[in-house]
Design a protein that fits this description.
Helix content is 15%, strand content 30%. By secondary structure, it is α+β, with helices and mostly antiparallel strands.
């Protein structure tokens, strides 16, 4: 798959800015208004079972929105000292044959010129997608009733981002944010049409709200329309340049949390953690500082099954620990 990404990247890099130019400047007879349409909602998945030294995948999911998407450009930031070597895997949109058969998904891992003056996270990746590249007989699937491009159902995985987790993580910092980031107006926007729009009435959905979790239950809104590039607070007001530009997408940041299996809190998962659990279970040793990190198989208790599970993981290529959320 990486070969395909590399081969189409230059095409996407030049094609998408033209696509955005058309969004901004094509004239339209349609008038945007309160038509009952539900804005898009895009969420980076949160995972609580990151293990030092392993590879972990985070899904990027379309969780809301009633209108037709024709492409997107997402920029995602991360701390490269904690996760690195990002790659992407296709979601349902890009399966051929499939229900949607979108034509292009490309990955850029930088460096990004807009970050030369600082202010950006140590890691950034950009994903560009176009439903129809108009480059031959192949085209994305259409709705048989309307003849228009299919609306993406809610809870569809657009793509997955795969990270390698650092071999050592600080036990005092168990939360690793993975977040949307803006270096330009073209970052984190969706090309879309309303159901009443004509074929050339392509609109641009900019951020309406940005939400963070800070590793805690619930969401914290961090939106600031007066922010300046580079920013993690959403697209500034300067990006809304025409009636075809709308604040019509909510973004939900993701995260990795870790500690599952690291019962002795030394930043690694290894035989010392197995010994720790044996001592706790059979020699009156202390419990883990966070009880859930010892429930390796997520069955609400710490017992011999967790010790066996951890040994299998470390020495026999067994499945990753699946501790419950603390």
């Amino acid at each position: 798959m990486s070969d395909r990404f590399n081969s189409v990247w230059l095409y996407a890099k030049f094609r998408f800015p033209l696509f955005i130019f058309l969004i901004f400047f094509i004239s339209s007879s349609a008038v945007a208004g309160d038509n009952g349409a539900i804005p898009f909602s895009i969420k980076i998945e949160g995972r609580n079972n990151a293990i030092p030294g392993d590879t972990i995948s985070l899904n990027v999911i379309k969780t809301g929105g009633t209108e037709e998407a024709h492409g997107f450009d997402f920029m995602i930031g991360f701390d490269r000292s904690k996760v690195y070597s990002p790659s992407i895997s296709y979601g349902e949109l890009f399966l051929i044959p499939g229900d949607f058969e979108w034509e292009l998904l490309a990955l850029d891992t930088g460096p990004f010129p807009e970050c030369e003056q600082g202010g950006c996270p140590s890691g950034l990746i950009e994903m560009i997608s176009i439903a129809d590249t108009d480059n031959g007989p192949a085209h994305p699937k259409t709705d048989p009733e309307t003849g228009r491009i299919k609306v993406i159902p809610d809870n569809t995985v657009l793509f997955s981002v795969n990270f390698h987790v650092a071999d050592y993580l600080n036990p005092a910092e168990p939360f690793i944010p993975i977040f949307f980031f803006w270096t330009l107006c073209s970052d984190n926007q969706i090309a879309f049409t309303y159901e009443y729009d004509g074929p050339f009435d392509i609109r641009s959905a900019f951020s309406r709200s940005v939400f963070d979790s800070d590793g805690l239950p619930g969401w914290i809104e961090i939106t600031d329309y007066n922010s300046e590039f580079p920013t993690n607070l959403g697209a500034p007001n300067e990006c809304i340049v025409s009636e075809m530009s709308e604040r019509f997408c909510d973004y939900f940041n993701g995260s990795l949390s870790w500690g599952c299996g690291d019962v002795n809190a030394d930043g690694r998962v290894n035989i010392l953690d197995c010994i720790f659990l044996i001592n706790m279970k059979y020699k009156n040793g202390p419990p883990p500082g966070i009880f859930e990190f010892g429930d390796i198989n997520n069955d609400t208790s710490i017992d011999i099954l967790d010790i066996i599970y951890l040994i299998n993981y470390i020495y026999k290529d067994g499945p990753q620990p699946v501790c419950p959320q603390p």
